[in-house]
Amino acid sequence: MDNFRIAFISGKLGDVDGVSLEVEKWISALKSMGHEIVTIAGKYRDPVPGVKKDQQVTMPALRFDSPAQRHYEKIFFPYLNKIPVYITEQKLKNYIEECMREGLELGEQLYDVVKQYDIDVIIAENTNAMPMTLLGGIATHHVATSKRLATIFHHHDFWWERSRFSNNKIENLLNNIMPPSDIGLEHAVISSYAAHILSSIKRVHPHVIPNCEDFDNPPVIDDYNADFRTELGFKEDDILIVQPTRIVRRKRIEDSVRLIAALQEKYPKYQEKVQYIISLYQGDEPDDDYVAQIRALAEKNNVKLHLISDRVGATRSTNRDGKKIYTNRDVLVHADLVTYLPVWEGFGNALLEALAAKVPVVTTTYLVYKTDIKVPGLNNIEIRNIYDDDGHLVIPEHILEEIHHILTHPSEKQEIIEQNFRIAKKEFGYNTLKEKLRQVIENYDDEIRASRKRLKKAKRLYSV
Q: What b/e string do you get for 407-418 counting C-beta neighbours within 10 Å, with b at 16 or more?
């Protein structure tokens, strides 16, 4: 198998969201296989580890919050508007044509970058699964199909799974390019469920590459993060319950707050000791009220809530005040328990991070957890995803007893987290990732080499 120059394209990279984190893992795996990496993104919160600075290309038009993206979101996705926007069919048609024209222009600019960096194959990260970078999706589709550049579409979730996008005025466009089903393209998804859906709807047969984690280099308490508790104002005997995710509604953080409130009510000794930490920021989903709602719910239930996203980043660094920025891994090695109660997840990066950090996890039995994660025999505290008439997760009494038991029986806790670590390392470690990526590249090898020849020809014609 040849070594290739591979470009990742995404609305953003170098962040702490699942897509950014998974891209970094793929980059690490592909580099270890001898491939060279370029990244193309709308913005970078932090530099992407392992990629040369001059090979991290910024194209602002790809941003999730670009002026064009915000403009077209208001027109095409009514659910995103607090005030309804009414337009005639002719105006809608004009807007769609305008959007397509801008997307194709961006596609030409993207192809110029491809030629400049001699890209053999693009890996498109959710650009053609979620319309959060609509112009980017059109541009990537244009480069993949009209320019016939070898492209692997890596889908983390799909637009029809989000109410804010499923209600839209551009279904024909989305059906055509998100994701595309054109011949000569490869697709990868992160779960067997996603593979089933994609093959059913699109007649596309994707590779299944689960989210993975670096279990060979698990997070530990070291010289850098040893002071985390004191730096953030926690006592050594505080019980840190961590929600290691961004603050978005599908994470159902309100259910975690209610869980902790119920635990404190049943076991009053936890009232002063438990500190509930949400490590990441509110991001990418337009909801101005959710953080305020979580704060109010925590205060009402006497749950001591700490939002520490200003001290957590994708990489270790310092902020403007010279204070340490920790990673999510640094936070997790100090956690006594992790809450992870989503109603829906594409996979579960944060759950794998917790298992690598050897922290017990309380999780809902969301769909992909049941089909792809639980199967090897992981032993987590599981709450069935059953909701009452008010939409609250039903938390059985025995769950509180299980949490209390694991917090008060250290030897049993150690046995469970060590077993979970061994299982997760085998199923979701970097060796699994490397093998699956090797299979994808091998399977697509002929098309990538043919794409390389087409690009060389295009560059010769372009230079004349």
A: beeeeebeebbe
User: Is residue 259 located within the same domain as residue 380?
Assistant: yes
**Which CATH number do you get for residue 446?**
3.40.50.2000
3-state helix, strand and coil shares in percent for the chain, rounded to the nearest 5: 50, 15, 35
**Both 49 and 176 in a single domain?**
yes
- In this structure, the answer to whether residues 161 and 298 fall within a common structural domain is no
Residue 128 carries which DSSP code? Answer: T
**434 and 415 within one domain:** no
**DSSP three-state, residue 393:** strand
Report whether pLDDT(104) > 70: yes
Q: Are 383 and 366 in contact (CB under 8 A)?
A: no
Split into its structural domains, the chain has a count of 2
Calculate mean pLDDT across residues 146-169.
93
338/380 same-domain check: yes
Domain that holds residue 85: 5-212+429-463
The set of residues, in sequence order, having a beta carbon less than 8 Å from that of 344 and lying 6+ positions away, is 161, 250, 366, 367
* Whole-angstrom distance, CA of residue 211 vs CA of residue 190: 6
CA–CA separation, 407 vs 410, rounded Å? 7
Other Cβ atoms closer than 10 A to 423: 16
pLDDT at residue 463 tops 60:
no
| Shared-domain flag, residues 411 and 442 | no
| Pairwise CA distance, residues 372 & 356, whole Å | 17
| Bridge partner residues of 208 (DSSP) | 189
Instruction: Report the pLDDT value the prediction gives residue 464, as an integer from 0 to 100.
Output: 43
For the full predicted model, state whether its pTM sits above 0.70: yes
